[in-house]
Amino acid sequence: MTHVTSLANNRRLVIDHHGRTREFAALWLRERSPDAETLDPRTGQRLIEAAELPLDLAVESAEARDGELHLRFSDGHRGVFDLDALFDDSPSDPPQRLWDAASAPRPEADFAAAVEDDAALLAMLEALHRDGFVLVSGVPTEEHGMQPLIDRIGPLRRTNWGGIADVKSVADAYDLTMTQRGLEPHTDNPYRDPIPGYIWLHCLTNAADGGDSTLSDGFMAARLLRERDPAAYDCLTRVTPGFRYRDDTTDLEGEGPLIELDSQGDPVRVRYSNRTERVPALPTEELEAYYAARTAFYRLITGEELTLHLKLDPGQMLIMDNYRLLHGRSAFQLAGGVRHLRQGYVDRDSTASRRRVLRRQATLAPTAGEPA
Amino acid sequence: MTHVTSLANNRRLVIDHHGRTREFAALWLRERSPDAETLDPRTGQRLIEAAELPLDLAVESAEARDGELHLRFSDGHRGVFDLDALFDDSPSDPPQRLWDAASAPRPEADFAAAVEDDAALLAMLEALHRDGFVLVSGVPTEEHGMQPLIDRIGPLRRTNWGGIADVKSVADAYDLTMTQRGLEPHTDNPYRDPIPGYIWLHCLTNAADGGDSTLSDGFMAARLLRERDPAAYDCLTRVTPGFRYRDDTTDLEGEGPLIELDSQGDPVRVRYSNRTERVPALPTEELEAYYAARTAFYRLITGEELTLHLKLDPGQMLIMDNYRLLHGRSAFQLAGGVRHLRQGYVDRDSTASRRRVLRRQATLAPTAGEPA
C-alpha cells in the first residue's frame, strides 16, 4: 500500500510506501524527474537549470499506482517516479572492510587473468576497494610490465617525476626512497595536489636482505584512535599540517589533516609523511596537543597490532589505496643483492569508474550456465 | 635586541626579538632544526622520526647572538636557527586578487614569449595565480598548438576522455558541451577525483554567431554571499551535494560543498555544475535551505555584477583556475560558421611548482644591467 499526503502548501510530500514513511521536497523531486526533458537519458546530465526553478514550487497533484508515483508540478511539468527507487537507500559502492594484523585479508589476483578477463578484473578491483590493497602475481618482470593492466583501467598518472619510475637504491640518492634506509609507514606525496590515488608497486628483483614491505590500514588506525583517545582523534581531524618537497627544480606544497573526514564525519583520507611534514607555527598549546596526538597515531600505525608484513617476490605487484593504507619498508642491505622495484600511480576516478561499469555489466549479463 | 626566557619546564621558549614576542614549543624547534642530521639539505626531507621524540623534550640551553639562536635540546641535539627566519610570517605564495565585472583585470600573455623566455612564463603564471585566469595570444592554430607551453609547466592531465580534446558541436552530441546550447557558469568535472586543476581552452575557429565565453570569480561570489546572506554562505560551505557522470563506459561520482573552506575558514575551491549535481535525500528543511542558498549563489555568478564577457579569437587561449573561476558560454548558431575549441587540463601542483621555482630563480639571479 502506498499513501501520499502533502504539507507546507504542497511544497512537501509525505509518502507511506509499504510501511515506510518518508518526506520529500517538491523541488528535490522536480529536479530529478526521470524524463528526457529534465535528465539526459544517456548521461543523466540535468537539462533544466535547477537554480531557476521557483523556490515555492509545489506539487499540484500526486497519485500512486502500480508502483509508480505520478506528479504534476506547479510549473506544469509532469513526472513519473518509480516508488521503490525513491525508497532505495543502498549506497552506490559496497562497504570497505577495515582490518588489523589478526584479521588482515590477503586479496590476490593473477595478472594475465585480470588483463584478459573482465570477471577477474572486476574481482581484483572489488578486492582493492574492500581491503585497500591487492597482491597481483604473474606480472612480467620488465620495466613497463604493469602497463597492460593499467591500460585496462585508466591513464597512468604522470607527475613532474614522470610515469612509471624506479624505486631502487642509487649511489647519489636525493630522495630517501632511493637509500637503503627503512621507511616509516607513510602515505605518498601529501604535498601534491592532487595526491596520488592508487600506488602500483611492482617488484623486478628483491634479492637484498631485508626490504620487506609493511602495510597498515589507516582507517582502522583512525577507528582505534577514536575509541581509545578521542581527544587525539579530534585533534588530528582538525589540525592541518603542511607538507613540502623542494629541490632545485621542484617546489611542492600541500596541507591537510592526518585524518580527513567527509560530511558524515567518517574518515575519507589519511595523510602521514614524517619526511615531508611541516607543522605551522600554531599556538603552543595546540602544537603540544598535536604532537601528543601524532605520537598516539604513530604508535598505532607502527605497532604489531595493525602491521601486515610481506615481501614482494619478482613478478609480484602491490596495488594500494593511497587515501587509506600506510606503507613502509624495513631497512635492507645491498650486500645481499639488488632490490629493484618500479612504481606508478593511477587515479581514483578512473579506477572507481571501471569497477562500477564492470559491476553493472556483470549484473546485467545472464548468469553463465543458466538456460538462455 | 633579542631576549629569551623559558617556560613549562623548558618545554617552551618565549623570544623577544627586535620588539616582537613569540612563544615556541621545544618540539617544534627540534623537528625543524636546520642541520644535515635533521633535515636533508637538498630536499628539506626530515631525516629523524619526529613522532619518536619525547613529548617532554626540553631546551637545556638557549643563547641568542649575531642574529642566531643557539639551542641545546634535552636529547643532546644542538641546533642553530636564524632568528629573522623564525619570525618571518610572509606566506610562501603572493595573495590572490578577487574581482568583479567593474574591477575585472585582463591579464594577457604572448605564447611564443612564454615558451621561450622564463621571465615571460613567470609573469604568465603569476597572473594566473593572482587573477584566476590569463588570456594567451599567438597560440598556433593547430590541434595540439598548446602543447609546447604545457611542456614548459608539467604533464598534461589525461583522463578517461584522453588528453587534449575537442570542444565543438557534433551531430550526435552525448555531452552538452558538444551542443549549441548555452552553458551556465560552471566548474569542470566536480564528479572526478581528482578534479581538474587548470583548464586550458584553445580557440582554433570561432566563426559561429554567439558562443561568447563568460567568466566569473567564484571566490568573489563567495565573499559577496557571506556579506549579503551569511546563512546561505554557511549552508553552501556545509552541505555536500553529489556530482555524477554516467554513460555506457563511464561511471564517475564525487561530492563536496559548493564553497569549500580551508582550515582558516577561507574558500579554497568552488564547485558549481548544474548539469551533474545530484542532491542527496537530506532532511526536507535542510534541502529547502540548500535550494535557497544555491539560488542566491546562482544569482551572483550569473549576474552582470560579476560576469566578464569575452570572445576568443582563433589563436587565443584561456587558462583558467578550475578551483576558483566559473566559466560558461552563450548559445551559438552554427549557421553562422564553425566553432572549434580544444581543451586540456594541467595539474595544480606542477603549475604552482613551476611558478615558485621560477620566482626563486628570478630572485636569486643578478638584476639585468647591474655590474656583475
Automatic annotation (TrEMBL), chains A, B:
| Record-given protein name | TauD/TfdA family dioxygenase
Similarity comment: Belongs to the gamma-BBH/TMLD family.
**Organism of this sequence:** Halomonas pelophila
Q: Where is the TauD/TfdA-like domain?
A: 108-345
Cofactor dependence is on:
Fe(2+)
User: Which Pfam family, giving just one, matches this sequence?
Assistant: GBBH-like_N
Transmembrane domains' residue ranges:
none
Write the record's keywords in alphabetical order, separated by commas. Dioxygenase, Iron, Metal-binding, Oxidoreductase
**GO MF term (any one):** dioxygenase activity
Q: Which Gene3D superfamilies match?
A: 3.30.2020.30, Clavaminate synthase-like
Domain named Gamma-butyrobetaine hydroxylase-like N-terminal: residues: 10-86
